[in-house]
Design brief:
Blueprint (H helix, E strand, L loop, with lengths): L15 H16 L11 E3 L9 E3 L5 E8 L8 E6 H9 L5 E7 L5 E7 L1 H6 L4 E3 L14 E5 L9 E4 L5
Length: 168
């Protein structure tokens, strides 16, 4: 790349966290039908950096956020790292809540389980969004302020396991 030339996304080596996120998005698009229109394999990933959403249904336009994490196989995470608090807070103030897919991955990157939290559950329980302290001025992203999803603030009935499907 020449000096002053913009780098493309293909030129950037993804971080382990970004790879985990991509694996989560791939699992959702491959294994989950759209919650709104029920069409299988219609969810598609959005471009990196799309504000507060990661997948869209190519039929009905349904949007959702995807969060992936490596966990022990026998439990669902209680907290997840979110993105930018400023962007999420803007969405909350505008009463825009995107549904949430939570993907738990094994150490080899294969999906263990996928959970779904509808947007109306997140709207009814805004305490799930917990702002974090801003990063230090010496950090890679100085003064960036993110947030956490505190899943302990959601009722059990609001979190539905969608993968693997029930064997009943």
């Amino acid at each position: 790349m020449k000096p002053g030339e913009a780098s493309s996304e293909a030129d950037i080596i993804p971080t382990p966290r970004a790879l985990t996120g991509r694996r989560g998005e791939a699992a959702v698009t491959r294994l989950v039908a759209c919650p709104r229109c029920s069409r299988p394999r219609h969810l598609r990933p959005l471009e990196a950096g799309f504000q507060c959403a990661d997948v869209i249904c190519k039929f009905c336009g349904f949007l959702a956020q995807v969060k992936a994490t490596m966990v022990s196989p026998d439990r669902r995470p209680s907290r997840l790292l979110g993105g930018s608090w400023a962007r999420q807070h803007e969405q909350i103030l505008a009463d825009i809540f995107q549904a949430l897919f939570i993907v738990t991955l094994a150490q080899n990157g294969k999906p263990i389980a996928i959970y779904y939290v509808p947007s109306h559950i997140l709207r009814a329980h805004p305490a799930v969004y917990r702002p974090r302290n801003a990063l230090a001025a010496t950090a890679r992203r100085p003064n960036f302020r993110g947030f956490m999803y505190d899943l302990t603030q959601l009722p059990e009935v609001g979190i539905q396991q969608v993968y693997p499907p029930d064997s009943e």
